C-alpha cells in the first residue's frame, strides 16, 4: 500500500544515540513509520559544521547511528535510511535556497545562537551559520509533510517553511510547507540536572549502555538538593530523577510524586525503580542490536538501498526545481 504522507527527520552522526534522542524523536518515528512514508537522514554534512577537523570518525558514526535506528525498531521495510552526503541534489538545493535567506534571519535563529555559544564560536563558519538552509534541503528534497523533532529544532522548521513559501511564490508551487511534530517530552534534561542531555556535555544515558551502567548513571543523577534525609519532604519538580520517571516510567508517576512529597520514599529506592524502568525499555533494544553487531554488513546494505531510493526521489525534485527556476536550458 502506498502511504500518502511523508515524514523526514534525522540526526547528526556524532556518536551513539541516547535517551534524549529516544524521547525527542525516535519514539514518534517508531509510532508513525507504518502510517507515513518515513525518511531518516543521517546528516553527515551537518555534522561537519562542528566536526570538520575529525574526518576519520565520520564513517564509523554514520554506521553507529544507523545501527541505533535499527536497534530501537526502525523497520527498513517501512523506513528509508539515507546518508546526506551521498545525495548531491541536497547540496544543490542548499545553494538555491541560500538566495532566499538573509544573514539576519540566520543570526536571529535561537538554536544557532545557543549552539555557537556552546561551541565557543565567535566567528562562525559560513557552513555552520548556514546549516538551517541545508536542513531545509533535507526536509524538502522528498517533500516531507511532517518533521518529528525536539523543541530546539523548531526554528529550523520555521526557516524551512519560510524558504518554501518564498520559493513557491517566486517560481512555481513545487513544495509544501512541512509541519513540525514535537515530542511528548520536548527537552530531556541530562544527568547533571542542568543542561539538555547531550553527548558533548557528558551527561547522557546511551541506548547501548548495559544494565549496570544504566544503574550507575541513574544513581549519579542529581536529585532535589533540599532533600538530605529520606524522610525529608521532596520537591519532585526540581528533581532530575522525577523528570526521568515522567519520561520512562509514566505509570508510577502519581505514586512517586505523592511519596516523594510526603518523604515516604527515599532517593535511592526511587532511583532503583527508575533504573529498572529504563532497563526494561532498553532490553529489547539490546536484543535487536545484537543481530546488527554480529552482521554489520546488514546495516550497510540497508543504508545503501535507502540512499538509492532517496536519491531517485531527490533527482525528480531537482528537475522540478530547475524547471521552476528556469535553469533547465540546453535540455
Ligand atoms: N539538526 C538536527 C539535530 O541536530 C539533525 C537534522 C539534520 C535534522 N537534518 C534534519 C532533523 C532534518 C530534522 C530534519 O538533531
How would you describe this structure to a colleague?
- The protein folds into 2 domains: 6-188 and 295-324, 3-Layer(aba) Sandwich (Rossmann fold); 211-288, Tyrosyl-Transfer RNA Synthetase (Orthogonal Bundle).
- It is 54% helix and 8% strand.
- It has helices spanning 19-32, 44-51, 58-72, 88-98, 103-108, 110-118, 126-129, 131-140, 154-170, 211-219, 240-248, 253-262, 267-294, 296-324, and strands at residues 6-11, 37-42, 79-83, 146-149, 179-182.
- It has a 3-stranded parallel sheet with strand order 1-2-3. A two-stranded parallel ribbon has the order 4-5.
- Helix 4 (88-98) packs parallel to helix 14 and helix 10 runs antiparallel to helix 13.
- Tryptophan binds next to strand 1, helix 8 and strand 4.
- Residues 8-12, 41, 43, 46, 135, 138-139, 147, 149, 153 line the site of tryptophan (TRP).
How would you summarize the topology of this molecule?
Elements: E1 6-11, H1 19-32, E2 37-42, H2 44-51, H3 58-72, E3 79-83, H4 88-98, H5 103-108, H6 110-118, H7 126-129, H8 131-140, E4 146-149, H9 154-170, E5 179-182, H10 211-219, H11 240-248, H12 253-262, H13 267-294, H14 296-324
Parallel strand pairs: 1-2, 2-3, 4-5
Helix pairs in contact: 3-13, 3-14, 4-8, 4-14, 8-9, 10-13, 11-13, 13-14
